[in-house]
Amino acid sequence: MLGDELIALLGDRIPDDHARQWLADRWVPRFYATRPGGARVVDLGCGIGESLDLFRAHDPAVRWVGVDLEDSPEVRERTRGDAEFLTFDGAAIPLPDASVDLVYSKQVFEHVERPRPLLADVARVLRPGGWFCGSLSQMEPYHSLSVGGYTPSGWTTVVEETGLRVVELRPGIDAAALLVRRLLGMPAFADRWFAGTSPLHRALRRHPRLRGGGPRVHNAARLMVSGQFAFLARRPED
User: Which part of the chain is the Methyltransferase type domain (predicted)?
Assistant: First the structure.
């Protein structure tokens, strides 16, 4: 059955609570359900700083820090100056050890040329029990200096090499929808496929071989064909 290989490899990292398509933004209210206000948050690969509004909506006292390269297409578009923005070399985050409660990284690591040193530095700056969450590409057309993609199992391997533990992997928009969106010139109507249920995932929901399967079975099948997927990892408590 589609997805059996992922279940065998990843087990309960593939959730069994529901099989809804996921956006990285949805980790944020879950984070604040477990933390008091005033957390220190790093948006790794922050670009224009869009996530600042998301975090401030949940915690006006958030200590948000945006970290990105000195120059990129997204950084060049940044106009806001109402937060702390730091530049880095793509590998060493300019913050002290164990000083961050959450590292948020939305659609960034497909652009990272040296992922392992950067992931090791994510683990370094996180406090014990800290969260690392976001999303990344698996199968997506070239965009904005992208250098590759990850499978859910490959991503789990490189993250857990650092000592972090991947807790959840959830499907994002399907790969066919991303390709069609690009071929059509990224029309506005296709944006709804990110937040809703994209067409291939909708078809899988009715696939006869998946009928009777629980949420983990459906999540695994969707992860197999997702163009993007979301992840949640944590630094173990010392």
Answer: 42-133
**Which helix (H) or strand (E) segment is 129 a member of?**
strand 126-137
pTM recorded for the entire structure: 0.94
Contact (Cβ atoms closer than 8 angstroms) between residue 177 and residue 190: yes
Residue 4 and residue 11: Cα distance in Å, rounded? Answer: 10
| Among the listed residues 163, 176, 187, the one whose alpha carbon sits nearest the alpha carbon of residue 228 | 176
Q: Which of 22, 48, 72, 30 is nearest to 194 (CA)?
A: 22
CA-only gyration radius of the chain, Å: 18
d(CA 141, CA 226): 13
Identify the structural domains of the chain with CATH numbers, from first to last. 4-234 (3.40.50.150)
91-146: pLDDT as tens digits: 999 999 999 999 999 999 999 989 999 999 999 999 999 999 999 999 988 888 88
210 Cα distance to chain centroid:
26
Percent of the chain with pLDDT over 70: 99
Write out pLDDT tens, residues 133-182: 999 999 988 888 888 899 999 999 999 999 999 999 999 999 999 999 99
- What number of helices (H) and strands (E) belong to the chain? 10, 7
